[in-house]
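Quick one, T. Sequence first:
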Amino acid sequence: MAGWNADTAAGPLGSGTITLVEGSSFCISSSNGDIHPELPHGAFHRDTRILSRWNLTINGQPMEALAAETKEPYRAFFVSRVPRSDGYADSPLIVERLREVGAGILEQVTVRNYSVDPAECAVLLVPEADFADLFEVKEARVQRRWEEVREVKDDSLVVHANWQGLRKSVVFRGEGATATSDGLSYRVTIPPYSDWTARLSVLPLIDGAGPESPFSHPHPGEMSPRDKRRQDWVARIPALHMGNRSIERTLRRSYDDLGALRIEDPEHPDRVVVAAGAPWFMTLFGRDSLWASEMALPVDPSLALGTLQTLADRQGKVVDSMSEEEPGKILHEVRLDISSGLALGGKSTYYGSVDATPLFVQNLGSLSRWGFSKETISALLPNADRALEWISEYGDKDGDGFVEYERLSDQGLINQGWKDSWDGINFADGRLAEPPIALCEVQAYVHGAYMARAWMAYDAGDVALAADLRDRAARLKRQFNEQFWLPDKGYYAIALDGDKRPVDSCASNMGHCLWYGLIDDDKVPLVVDKLMSPEMFSGWGVRTLASDMRAYNPASYHNGSVWPHDNAIIVAGLMRCGYIDEAQRIATALLEAAEYSDGRLPELFCGFDRNMFKEPVPYPTACSPQAWAATAPILLITALMRYDAHIFHGGMWLDPALPGSYGDVHISNAPMGAGRITIDVSGSSVSVQGLPEGMRVHRGHRPWITELVEQAKLPPER
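Structure tokens:
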């Protein structure tokens, strides 16, 4: 997978940090430009931290940050000053650092002297490289200690490292610097009202040589490849105007971030897929990329096609317990540098996801509605059928009718649904659930996969297959409502554990089941009441875990935090079930939360009650931008607009239920079948221009696949 290419928007990672990304390389530093190994900082190339310390001092003083600005996703400008040692507040020495990330770091350091006197400056840059795995850094569990040899060559310091026979090297170079084993230094005298500049670089060595073209600079007057890709993307996506300028800014930011998170498959440059998120997950994921593609269908359906085709090419073929590959299974993630052996499963492709496989089939069903040729969809049907075979043969190993997971390797993920932290699935009393674990939302995805494939089969004339899949879905729904429902609590268990006991914590997962039609009608009101209760709804969104559960922690990753994509799916489910007020309340809260982060929703934020803090509390290592967070506002608005398509079933649907505070909506250049349309919404009034011939606008909701299958002329259920 080496060579994935991306345009990525940079953003802060926690408080006071600057993130730069170019493709799969990225750099995280403090606001003065320094990098500290004890923090989740560093310059990363091929998922390895090649720069763990990069500290600049002048006359022994660290820099005092004044400002930092991201110029491009891959370039930032830092301005600091050198503190005085004589007690005076103002300093005449201002330091500028212009940094670019590529296959390493390129940095220009300029010291400006605003004094009437010459400035004697001892400039020192102290670098370190610990070659830590990306996840070691993110999770603060760096334990390996490489055997290190430092070699001084002219103005460069080369660090060679060895760990259990693995060898890595990195070169720190400062043009004109004095290099020692401790770092790169300069002694300069800067005249009054003058400046001094040095250029430095950090580059990994691969097989003794540096990477080719580590930094891409176009000729004067030319656009860089990344800028050309961005320009093409902007020309292809809808243009949006809303009466509520704050929501408009959030949606435009979503468009920008989604465009920036696109990755080109090096084996198929014509295919574009969605990376999971910056900075930690700038690679192909199964679940994340599929969800982001699903939510982004109204903006660019081609993202879903590229994602499905790329995942299909890497669909599981054999049984491999280390990577958890199984025939028909859809991958969890791809990693670039697995030489450390610390990647999940110890291999570059890891398959430990219980939900990516049914989501693949469901996503294909969604894509089939958006106007791609039947030949395009048919080419992926064998992959969908292999995915369904995995569900039956490997996903449901004990044959109880539910898909469950249990990791096959001690290097794999303990939990393999979207809440994949080690403690993400627990009972109301805080005990961890023991595998095999059958998650409630996974059963919903499987139900959706059965229904999606059933409709595609019926549409293609295979009535027998359609009937069989409809029957499977019906059995699953009956079993689910019998075994997951907790009548004494009024909500669904998050899972069944290895002993088939309901895991009785109140969690947001059941909200996903609303969208897929898995919940019995008489139980829907109780689920909605629980999701909107003070224990679940923080005021900024629905928490992942209710505040009265023993494992609740508002600052945890999955046990009480608020995830925008989770909430967007819940909003879509509420709209399906007719709960417009509740859907509006959640959507408005999330869009208001985005105002506090420059219009960008992060991967997650903490679950503290809105009455406690006037702003959402950031989660320290949340990805920003992150694919399904970037696409969450798109789903929020399109769900409230009841905006959807089924090109081969009569056209598009639009029946808006937007709050009055959102104002009028104008969308142009929106993809619809083979054409581009313009949409105007004012209250409940709608106008659509440019519909392709033979299409028309329908009010109400687009017929659900479950409805279509039930209405189809299929043999009676056995």
